[in-house]
Design goal:
With 171 residues, the chain is mainly α. It is built from 8 helices and no strands.
Length: 171
């Protein structure tokens, strides 16, 4: 059982119960699948790889599973240990080794669009013991006039509808 094949098969299945059963089998039989799910769904991991790198067409290779070094690269990339230029070079070198099926899976993972027909919430509910990441919900933003605020309180500006995780306040 290979990663590219498994992800493609789960995406092709239409019944949610069958998808969840296939996920369970993949988790039991393919250790790399858990890494794939964490990398693809974890909202705390982002990659920042350029669109040009991800939209490029690559020759197909023979590998239908990532090597441990590739998995480590993805985690390091998510941790910000690579510049975009360095990451692009590693990805351009890596892609020709992968089958076309695994290239699509990898690009979708880097884009945070796993396209397997199951949301991260469904995954966490279906496999609560998996602990891939800590779920969180974002508070809704709404206009404030300040007249009814009870202090002390926490107020956070909403900028362009986005929220982020700050790693270094000194930069």
């Amino acid at each position: 059982m290979e990663l590219g094949h498994v992800v493609t098969a789960i995406a092709a299945e239409s019944k949610k119960s069958d998808k969840m059963a296939m996920l369970g089998c993949a988790l039991d039989e393919l250790p790399q699948f858990k890494d794939y799910l964490k990398l693809a769904f974890d909202p705390y991991l982002t990659f920042g790889v350029s669109e040009a790198t991800l939209k490029r067409r690559y020759e197909s290779g023979e590998m239908d599973s990532w090597t441990p070094e590739m998995v480590q690269f993805f985690y390091d990339l998510g941790a910000g240990k690579y510049t975009p230029t360095e990451a692009g070079k590693v990805i351009r070198d890596m892609m020709p080794m992968l089958t076309s099926q695994l290239q699509v899976v990898t690009i979708n993972m880097l884009n945070k669009t796993p396209r397997i027909g199951i949301s991260g919430d469904t995954l966490l509910k279906g496999y609560p013991g998996l602990k891939l990441w800590e779920p969180f919900s974002l508070p809704l933003a709404y206009p404030r006039d300040g007249k009814h605020d009870v202090f002390p309180c926490i107020i956070q500006p909403k900028i362009d509808g986005l929220r982020c995780k700050v790693k270094d306040l000194t930069a």
